């Protein structure tokens, strides 16, 4: 259903419904296959709504539900079978039964057609006909008595992130207070957990998460894959999240849009090819010529490109501060985690501060310290790549003809972000990187690279910024980001390597087979790292995903999206390729 259809429907409701309807309309997703988790607050109520876009059977099978969980109640309103036969077929009825709790789940259906009753009863529901509402004479009500859940083999594969035993969690340690750590702390604290955020440096967001300005954006893929679907849904979730969070916190969120320029002939051809595939709605992306780009940017642009109207920019350190401003979060800075061990159903975390060691117990741990995760034996085998880069921020008060004109982010190999720091007009440029944690000198060397990158975007702007190369009006900040060989984060439970290798060892003999078995995960140990340059886009959704795993809730990611980010994917790939760890 489109936003305009919802608006028309909501106008027919009593006025008392309008405030919450307006809240929903502000963040309602226009398009995009998969699961869309919407979270917002109305008065004192916190609302979570999962919308599933796609064919009903596929959409429900895509849900990832904890072993002891399931749907508590179903309201089925798929119109009459004569008008919407697929919504009532036996396959869909068995699918919703497999997602339910035997002897607990209840059901109600507006329609009482015989086809509906027979299919639901065959799926395991016990039904009765009762009085209907309004002009409807009858309706069906019932409950689930029995269902063979083991027929759903997707619950028994390496893609399943759920542990067989999920101990209750109360206190949670998060190691690392960058974007991933602070976002995870926020998602868990909002669920009532006592969170201890442990940072080895004196301040939070000390590494690349501390850049003066960052972009919320995703590059469109040329085909629909689990990875591209994850990135698109992460982008949409992040935009909704920042819009709501910015209502009560100041992290200078700017929904300014972004233009991805096509400077070469090949780039223009590639963008035209992407557009004819018709994979994205205009609310996400559409093509523009140089005249339109000039109008949107409010500055002379000599190239065509793709325009992303929802993209934006913000201040990462201020965002991290907004995330951890919660009564349930305790921040420990200048504390370095040197080891942790699972004893007596808890994790004993060893920390060092100013040469003094201490120990504290937690029910669960979320590792969010990026490349430093390799220092722990439990996560040392995950492949991580370090990229060193720098951003340069220019104070533009003396050249307002530039800073006040540019209204959107410009991106090619480098990028230009216009923004305001309190009363100052600023421009931040970036794009330089070198592989390795400490590769590439910071300061003037990387500033020169950044300036060369933006010269391709705008020669006049490059000339003005080059005049300010040195002096007090330039602030440079270097940092190292962590990513993975497939450029997707590592997010989810940490597996017991030895036991899981044993469970899936048959992949070494036949890589194309499907092994229906559960991985062996370390109890209460999770990881959320490897976001690379997309941290502002991917951390909000993956923090919500981690919090849902800890809480034994239905996940905001589909099963194939989970597999795309699940850390276990690398162990499985190595087994299939007959590689040893």
Number of helices: 17
Question: In oligomeric terms, what are we looking at?
Answer: single chain
Largest sheet: 8 strands, mixed
Total count of strands: 25
Question: Under the CATH scheme, which class of the largest domain?
Answer: Alpha Beta
Number of domains: 4
* Class inferred from helices and paired strands: alpha+beta
Name the average pLDDT.
90
Instruction: Tell me the overall shape.
Output: globular
CATH architectural group of the largest domain? 2-Layer Sandwich
Rounded to the nearest angstrom, the distance between the terminal CA atoms is 48 Å
According to CATH, what is the topology of the largest domain? D-Amino Acid Oxidase, Chain A, domain 2
Q: Name the beta content range.
A: 25-35%
| Rg | 26 Å
- Unreliable spans are none
Side-by-side strand order of the widest sheet = 11-12-10-20-21-22-19-23
Helix fraction, binned, reads 25-40%
What is the CATH homologous superfamily assignment of the largest domain? D-Amino Acid Oxidase, subunit A, domain 2
Describe the fold and architecture.
This protein has 17 helices and 25 strands. The strands form six sheets. It has an eight-stranded mixed beta sheet with strand order 11-12-10-20-21-22-19-23. It has a six-stranded mixed beta sheet with strand order 14-8-7-18-25-24. The chain has a four-stranded mixed beta sheet with strand order 3-4-6-5, with helices on one face. The model has no long low-confidence stretch (mean pLDDT 90). It is of the alpha+beta class. Helices cover 29% and strands 27% of the residues. Helix 4 packs across helix 5, helix 6 packs parallel to helix 15 and helix 7 packs across helix 16. It has four domains: 63 residues, no CATH class; 86 residues, Vaccinia Virus protein VP39 (Rossmann fold, 3-Layer(aba) Sandwich), CATH 3.40.50.150; 194 residues, FAD/NAD(P)-binding domain (3-Layer(bba) Sandwich); 195 residues, D-Amino Acid Oxidase, Chain A, domain 2 (2-Layer Sandwich).
């Amino acid at each position: 259903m489109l936003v305009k259809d919802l608006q028309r429907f909501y106008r027919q409701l009593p006025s008392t419904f309008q405030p919450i309807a307006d809240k929903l309309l502000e963040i309602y997703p226009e398009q995009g296959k998969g699961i869309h988790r919407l979270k917002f607050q109305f008065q004192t109520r916190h609302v979570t709504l999962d919308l599933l876009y796609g064919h009903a059977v596929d959409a429900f099978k895509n849900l990832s539900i904890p072993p002891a969980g399931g749907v508590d109640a179903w309201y089925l309103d798929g119109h009459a079978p004569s008008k919407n036969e697929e919504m009532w077929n036996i396959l869909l009825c068995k699918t919703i039964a497999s997602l339910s709790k035997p002897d607990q789940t209840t059901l109600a259906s507006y329609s009482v057609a015989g086809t509906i009753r027979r299919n639901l009863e065959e799926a395991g529901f016990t039904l009765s006909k009762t009085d209907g509402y309004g002009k409807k004479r009858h309706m069906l009500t019932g409950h689930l008595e029995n269902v063979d859940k083991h027929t759903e083999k997707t619950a028994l594969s390496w893609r399943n992130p759920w542990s067989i035993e999920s101990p209750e969690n109360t206190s949670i340690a998060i190691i690392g207070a960058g974007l991933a750590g602070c976002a995870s702390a926020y998602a868990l604290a909002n669920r009532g957990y006592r969170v201890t955020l442990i940072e080895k440096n004196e301040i939070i967001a000390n590494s690349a998460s501390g850049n003066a300005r960052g972009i919320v954006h995703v590059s469109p893929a040329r085909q629909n894959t689990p990875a591209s679907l994850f990135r698109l849904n992460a982008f949409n979730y992040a935009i909704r999240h920042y819009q709501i969070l910015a209502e009560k916190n100041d992290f200078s969120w700017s929904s300014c849009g972004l233009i991805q320029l096509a400077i070469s002939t090949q780039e223009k051809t590639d963008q035209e090819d992407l557009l004819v595939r018709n994979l994205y709605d205009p609310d996400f992306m559409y093509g523009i010529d140089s005249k339109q780009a000039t109008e949107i940017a409010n500055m002379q642009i000599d190239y065509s490109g793709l325009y992303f109207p929802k993209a934006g920019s913000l201040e990462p350190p201020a965002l991290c501060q907004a995330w951890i401003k919660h009564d349930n979060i305790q921040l420990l800075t200048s504390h370095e985690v040197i080891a942790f061990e699972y004893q007596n159903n808890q994790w004993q975390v060893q920390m060092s501060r100013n040469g003094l060691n201490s120990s504290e117990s937690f029910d669960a741990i979320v590792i969010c310290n990026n490349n430093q995760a390799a220092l722990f034996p439990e996560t040392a085998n995950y492949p991580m790549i370090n990229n060193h880069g720098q951003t340069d921020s220019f104070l533009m008060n003396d050249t307002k003809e530039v800073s006040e004109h540019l209204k959107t982010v410009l991106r090619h190999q480098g990028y230009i972000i216009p923004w305001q720091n309190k009363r100052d007009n600023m421009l931040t440029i970036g794009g330089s990187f070198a592989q390795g944690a400490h590769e590439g000198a910071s300061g003037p060397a990387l500033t020169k690279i950044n300036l060369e990158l933006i010269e391709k975007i705008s020669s006049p702007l490059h000339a003005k910024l080059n005049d300010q190369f040195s002096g007090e009006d330039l602030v440079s900040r270097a940092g190292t980001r962590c990513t993975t060989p497939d450029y997707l984060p590592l997010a989810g439970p940490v597996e017991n390597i030895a036991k899981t290798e044993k469970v899936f060892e048959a992949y070494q003999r036949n890589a194309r087979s499907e092994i229906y078995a559960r991985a062996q995960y370390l109890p209460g140990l999770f990881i959320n790292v490897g976001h690379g340059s997309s941290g502002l886009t991917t951390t909000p959704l993956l923090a919500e995903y981690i919090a849902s795993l800890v809480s034994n809730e239905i996940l905001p990611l589909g099963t194939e999206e989970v597999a795309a980010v699940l850390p276990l994917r690398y162990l499985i790939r190595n087994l299939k390729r007959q590689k040893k760890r």
